[in-house]
Write a structure and sequence with these properties.
This protein is of the alpha+beta class. Helices cover about 30% and strands about 20% of the residues.
């Protein structure tokens, strides 16, 4: 065994150790970032009164899928709703900045419909608390969309035409101008 083999083995071990440290550091940072994003979006913690629990039996785990009589399929129990509306109305929404018109179902958010069509739209939390997806409509936002949890804007802003596409479902046809987060 010559000195070069021992030296190469030591260098390989050092390089491998650096890779392991770097990979581990990335995983830890990714985990911390994901937890922070979920916490700021309101996805961690307890109920409305702020209580938290460590009891696994008291978690908000998704329940079984229910099938209501009207044909809508809803996943209940986790605060999030995935709906397939078999008989709902579809509205043509003009996405002005993206230069596209998309048919959006009455139970689909404006953000989801745009992303499903491959449109580039600003968003972050997807639950209405950050305001990153803020947009304007050509009319009274309280009449044109139904918001489900729009905490980043108030009723007066909605009446002035501001909406949060991540939690807004259409109630009529209109034009949507995205990129308005700096205005709210």
């Amino acid at each position: 065994m010559d000195g070069s083999t021992s030296s190469e083995t030591t260098e390989e071990a050092a390089a491998e150790g650096t890779c392991v440290d770097s990979c581990l550091r990335r995983r830890v940072l990714l985990g911390v970032a994901a937890t922070g994003a979920m916490a700021s979006a309101g996805c961690l913690g307890g109920g409305e009164d702020g209580d938290t629990t460590d009891d696994p039996e008291e978690t908000d785990a998704p329940e079984e899928t229910e099938m209501p009589a009207n044909g809508e399929q809803t996943t209940a129990g986790n605060g999030m709703e995935t709906t397939t509306d078999s008989g709902g109305q579809t509205y043509d929404i003009e996405y002005v900045v993206q230069e596209a018109t998309v048919g959006v179902g009455s139970t689909e958010t404006l953000l989801d419909a745009g992303l499903d069509e491959g449109l580039e739209m600003p968003y972050q939390c997807e639950v209405g608390v950050c305001g990153e997806c803020a947009a304007t409509v050509d009319g009274d936002g309280t009449e044109l969309v139904e918001h489900d949890g729009a905490e980043a804007i108030d009723e007066a802003q909605m009446a002035d035409g501001y909406v949060l596409p991540c939690v807004a479902e259409p109630r009529a046809e209109f034009s949507l101008t995205t990129g308005k987060a700096d205005e709210i």
